[in-house]
Amino acid sequence: MEAFLVSALAVTVGEIGDKTQLLALLLAARFKRPLPIIVGILAATLLNHSLAGLLGEWIRTALSPATLRWILGISFLLIAAWALKPDEIDEEAKERGHYGVFAITCITFFLAEMGDKTQLATIALAAKYPDLLQVVAGTTLGMMIADVPAVILGKVASPQFPFKLVRFISAGIFAVLGLAVLLGFGALL
Questions:
Q1: CA distance 51 to 70
Q2: Cα–Cα dist 6/3, whole Å
Q3: 161-170 in b/e burial notation, b at 16+ Cβ within 10 A?
Q4: Rounded CA separation 130/39 (Å)
């Protein structure tokens, strides 16, 4: 249960103000169809985080515990620093064309998550915790907790949301995780 809760918390906080949350806002404002967007986010996240989790699991088995501890600790610290940088969406969502809102959401979310801090956090968490299912379920839940309200609220609440404050909180959580791992408190996380 620990892997699930830590994964959910880390990704929920890490996702606030992230480019995929901004993408959720953009898609909601553009298409005004929350259900296919939410299901598309869920499908893309499950696939992306499952692949990331498998990579993390492989890393855990391929590296010695000491090497893994240093890599994980430094990874969490780098994610903390990355969380301080605001994300922006460079281009608007394309017109629907012959693709549905669900397909557009799946494809854009899957691609936007590639190399994103929440995907890297999923890799690191799967390398840390031996229960892949709990990690992927937790990181997926974290994405949904952060992105579903963005879809539902669309552009109405986004200008008032304290993204900067949440980025600092997210950075703090990842920094604490990184330091805890580096100092050998791994059994507590």
A1: 23
A2: 5
A3: bebeebbeeb
A4: 28
Report d(CA 118, CA 125) in Å as an integer: 10
**pLDDT of 48-70, one tens digit each?**
999 999 999 998 888 887 887 78
pLDDT digits (tens, 9 = 90+) for 156-167: 554 555 667 766
Residues 145 and 118: their CA atoms lie apart, in Å, by 13
127 burial (CB, 10 Å; 0-12 / 13-18 / 19+) is: buried
- The first and second tokens of residue 39, run together, are 């299901």
Q: Using CA atoms, how far apart are residues 128 and 77, in angstroms rounded to an integer?
A: 15
Residues 42, 55: Cα–Cα separation, whole Å: 20
The Cα-based distances of 71 to 6, 68, 113, 125, 185 in angstroms read: 18, 5, 21, 12, 15
Segment 90-135, tens digit of pLDDT: 444 444 455 689 999 999 889 888 878 888 889 999 998 999 999 9
- Cβ neighbours of 125 (radius 10 Å): 29
What whole-number distance in Å separates Cα of residue 145 and Cα of residue 164? 18
Structure tokens that stand for 184 in this block: 């050998």
Tokens representing 46? 């499950």
Residue 59: both structure tokens together: 């890393």
